[in-house]
Amino acid sequence: MKINRIVIQAIFSTALILSIASCKKWVDYNPHEDFKQTELDYLKSESDYRTMVVSVYTPLQWLNQAIVVSEIASDNAVAGGESASDILSLQQIDDMTHNANNSTLTELWQSAYEGINRANYLHQYKNANPGGQTVSFAGKEALYGEVYFLRAYYYFHLVKFFGDVPLFVDARLGLTQSKTLKRSEKAKVYAQIESDLLAAIGVLPSVQLEKGRVTKYAAQALLGKVYLYQQKYTEAASMLENVVTSGAFSLNSDYGKIFLSSNENGSESVFEIQYSNATPYYNWGAVTRGQGNYAAQQCGVRGLNGSDSMPYAAGWSTNLPTTDLASIFETGDQRKQVTVLDIEAYKKAHPTYNISYIVAPYKNTGLYNQKYLPRKGETSGQIELNYANNYRIIRYSDVLLMAAEANVKSGSGNEAKAKDYLNLVRQRAFGNNSHDITSSGNTLYLAILNERRLELAMEGDRFFDLVRTEQAEAKITGFVKGKNEVFPIPVEEINVSGLTQNSGY
After folding, report:
1. Dihedral of CA 39/44/46/51: which sign?
2. Is the four-CA dihedral 248, 254, 255, 258 of positive or negative sign?
3. What is the pTM of this model?
4. Are 465 and 446 in contact (CB under 8 A)?
5. What's the DSSP call for residue 356?
6. CA quadruple 229, 235, 237, 241: dihedral, nearest 10
7. Residue 153 and residue 158: Cα distance in Å, rounded?
8. pLDDT higher than 70, residue 35
9. For residues 9-21, b (16+ Cβ closer than 10 Å) or e, as one string?
10. How many angstroms separate the CA atoms of 395 and 266, rounded?
């Protein structure tokens, strides 16, 4: 501690008295004297709470590689790039040779736990701020619904990727505490996710005035997905039905418009990760930590040039759709041309664009991820790191297909309802009902899973869908059963906390 300067003078002038009394007057050190801030400076007002909740959303932006990894690890995409060493971490995941030193997986772990730590900080001071005062305001409970949704989202991300993970919820974790972490069983992590989402559902509004904030329906949809991943089909069907019957969402009649900037947070958007580039922050040392969506630049056509009327911008030819994915779309399915861009066919179809490009040097498929292909005018500042493309995390069509799957697999399965939901998605895809599915039983179940691949291709679900439905070994080259269902725990976390490693790594 530091003695207050005024008290120093008093000590000298009354030294005898103080010595006789055997007492000393000390004043606690005030960090403000050194222009420092501490916890006591935060959460003093409603504005403080609302600002800090926004910070809990921020790490969502850093998870953009989760979508890329899920596609490259599956049969939907290859890493692509310039060479076998270009973004080596993604090449390893593509080849199923990744290990605990993988930099992309390390970032996905660290980013999620940063989000959890921020959520836990707010949870720690919900009833009283660091100074012990209670800050009450209208809407505080609903605001905390957002916090608990986000914490659940981060833990769901972690349990999907890594299986058993450290679980802590009471307070922000410091460096000392992090050294004592142990992994919790998936069942316990899922129980916490369910608890957080149920708490969020109880207080979140159905509609948010500010686009991008989570709603009750987003929490219900995510909880339905969490139930589905645990094969709790009856609970999933019931939870997802809330979203379907809400009337709050509808399928966009034109599938091609869903991924345009003009349709962000549109009629079928249940939850999106928001990106912007109004004040384009970027950091090449941590490329997923820019303000924009760096993943858009990754999937662009290398060296692309053309006339001003050509809408697309150049990129790095990473995360390339496979020819296998392109081949499964039926004739007349409008989703194919929206999902995969055949650059050579596009060039021939638009001769006035005067297109030139560099063939992807490595693992070339001739195809590109059109859903998130970089477009002119959608970035600013540092071009590569500041695309403003939102990631569509849960769309209404996803909810319909999850509800269809849950209804087929639940003990009291409702196949009629499952077919209705499945065929709503297919009717939008083909523009008619001549491609409706009429099968039942396991054939219907497999049709729903296939529809998930078609509808949600390149959106970050494929690998985990294959794992949870036990199809991964048959569909993914190099996949080792009993190992590759999860990714390795980052070596830094093992070194710091002594965590055990996943089997096979």
Report:
1. negative
2. negative
3. 0.91
4. no
5. B
6. -120
7. 9
8. no
9. eeeeeeeeeeeee
10. 9
State the DSSP string of 375-432. BTTSB-SSGGG-B-PPEEEEEHHHHHHHHHHHHHHSTT--HHHHHHHHHHHHHHHHSS
Q: Is the pLDDT of residue 18 over 90?
A: no
According to DSSP, the residues that pair with 305 across neighbouring strands are 356
If phi over 0 gives left and psi between -120 and 50 gives alpha, with beta otherwise, what is residue 336? alpha
Decide if 206 contacts 215 (C-beta within 8 A): yes
Confidence of residue 262 (pLDDT cuts 50, 70, 90): very high
Q: Which residue bears the tokens 């969020």?
A: 200
Q: Are 212 and 265 in contact (CB under 8 A)?
A: yes
**CA separation (Å) from 15 to 2, 3, 18, 25, 28?**
19, 15, 5, 11, 20
Residue 269 phi/psi, 5-degree rounding, is -85, 115
Query: What is the distance between the alpha carbons of residues 37 and 30, in angstroms, rounded to a whole number?
Result: 10
The domains of the chain are located at 5-36, 43-204, 284-387
DSSP summary character for residue 43: S
CATH among 3.40.50.1000, 3.40.50.1820, 3.40.50.880, 1.25.40.390 for 43-204: 1.25.40.390
> Residue 22 — very low, low, confident or very high, per pLDDT cuts 50/70/90?
very low
Alpha helices, DSSP H, located in 204-330: 216-229, 233-244, 294-298, 323-327
Residue 382: per-residue pLDDT: 86
Residue 269 to residues 53, 158, 221, 243, 433, Cα–Cα distance (Å)? 21, 23, 11, 12, 24
Give the tens place of pLDDT for each residue, 135-194. 999 999 999 999 999 999 999 999 999 999 999 999 888 767 777 789 999 999 999 999
User: Please, what is the end-to-end C-alpha distance for the chain in angstroms?
Assistant: 48
β-bridge partners, 314: 301
